[in-house]
Amino acid sequence: MLTQAPKGTRDMLPGDAYLWHDLEDKMRALAALWGYREIRTPVFEHTELFQRGVGDGTDIVTKEMYTFRDKGDRSITLKPEGTAGAVRAFIEGNLANEGLPCKMYYLNAPIFRYERPQAGRLREHHQFGMECFGGKEPTVEAELINLLMTLLREVGLQNLSVHINSIGCPECRPKYHAALREYLGNRIHDMCETCRERFEKNPLRILDCKEEKCKETVKDAPSILDYLCDDCKAHFEKLQALLAAQHIPFTVDPRIVRGLDYYTKTVFEIIMQSGREGLALCGGGRYDGLVAQLGGPDTPAAGFGIGLERILMEIKNAGAEPEAPSISDVYVASLGSEMIAPAFTFTQTLRALGVKADCDLCGRSLKAQFKYADKIGAKYVCILGGDEYARGNAKIRDMCTKEEKEISLEAVGQTLADMLK
Ligand code: HAM
């Protein structure tokens, strides 16, 4: 128990750090290119923010939040998603005054959901998310989807499909809800308990049920797309034209409804064709009403969130991991215990020259030091000691070709730095 991480959580071990860093570097570079700046919000917020923002009828709020009372008796919740916190910060920081659109991203944000852990579903995961405030045009969603597809292709993922839908707005959605309830009629009694609960509160979510019998029942249900008002319809058509013009293949999928209540008009998910059913790589959409609903100025907005663990899982499945960098490029071996201190000092010199270098900290034999140098991927071993050292020289061994040469102690640091350039 003591040496086991809590269920549904994962360590990022040092051996995997380069994979995370590579992904994070690519995300930051793309965000900067697209004009998004970073925002960091607290790991916890007032519970009410999620109840009102995400929706108190959603699975996330009713079943999955990590909520507790702090010592001041406030109800606090660990972030179960990133959008509500970003909206809160947008309002509190008066960011609308800085000019719109206000484009922001969060990276590595820890997200907590009490879900049943399985591959790709954790209780703590980390998200890269982007939110764009102030843009009402579908170019916003087209930009977000384009960025996502660029990112996913750049990290080596293929067979991706973009699924888009429009779930309408407060004007047209109630008409669809009524039509859906009418269709479900008596059929609802044969559906699962969750669907029965959703019937009154949020019938749209019934379309997302993964139970076979429920999927069968809604197969011929009316489509939201036939109920969109003129504005929502025009918006959705423009988005499709924009995606087509950018050569982004997409599928219109009226079954995409998303599990959070704030969405209006566009919703989208990116799915790996080879991935598990029901496990989207990424999800997002437009939420034009949320800023005003939480007390801010009336501001249209859209965004997405993507789980870093989920992308890394797919990168590994696809065998698309980048090559692991060496831990140190030069290993300074000491021949005899009297050389430990000179080797240590020389290692600092190499580091000051910008060379990734290391030396023996464990009092190992020369043979064991070479074994270790191999393990950390050192390109060169610089040996200090013996006759060479007595002559004022050091020996360098190229770990790949096994060639060795002797270089004066004064010149060896710069020589290694030059060889590694
Ligand atoms: P979401 O679809 O709930 O949307 O989550 C976004 C992404 O986070 C998922 O597609 C998946 O990659 C990852 N994810 C979600 N739950 C888990 C989990 N239990 N374990 C591992 N990864 C997970 C949102 O959170 C919205 N805030 C997205 C958004 C931003 N919409 C507009 N702006």
Quickly list its features.
421 residues, alpha+beta, BirA Bifunctional Protein, domain 2, Rossmann fold, 15 helices, 21% strand
Summarize the structure in short:
This protein is α+β, with helices and mostly antiparallel strands and 421 residues long. It has helices at residues 17-33, 47-55, 59-64, 83-92, 139-154, 173-184, 193-201, 212-218, 230-245, 290-293, 308-317, 340-352, 366-375, 386-390, 409-420, and strands spanning 37-38, 44-46, 67-69, 75-78, 102-112, 124-133, 160-166, 250-252, 264-272, 282-286, 301-307, 330-334, 357-359, 380-384, 393-398, 404-408.
What does the secondary structure layout of this molecule look like, with pairings?
Layout: H1 17-33, E1 37-38, E2 44-46, H2 47-55, H3 59-64, E3 67-69, E4 75-78, H4 83-92, E5 102-112, E6 124-133, H5 139-154, E7 160-166, H6 173-184, H7 193-201, H8 212-218, H9 230-245, E8 250-252, E9 264-272, E10 282-286, H10 290-293, E11 301-307, H11 308-317, E12 330-334, H12 340-352, E13 357-359, H13 366-375, E14 380-384, H14 386-390, E15 393-398, E16 404-408, H15 409-420
The chain binds histidyl-adenosine monophosphate (HAM).
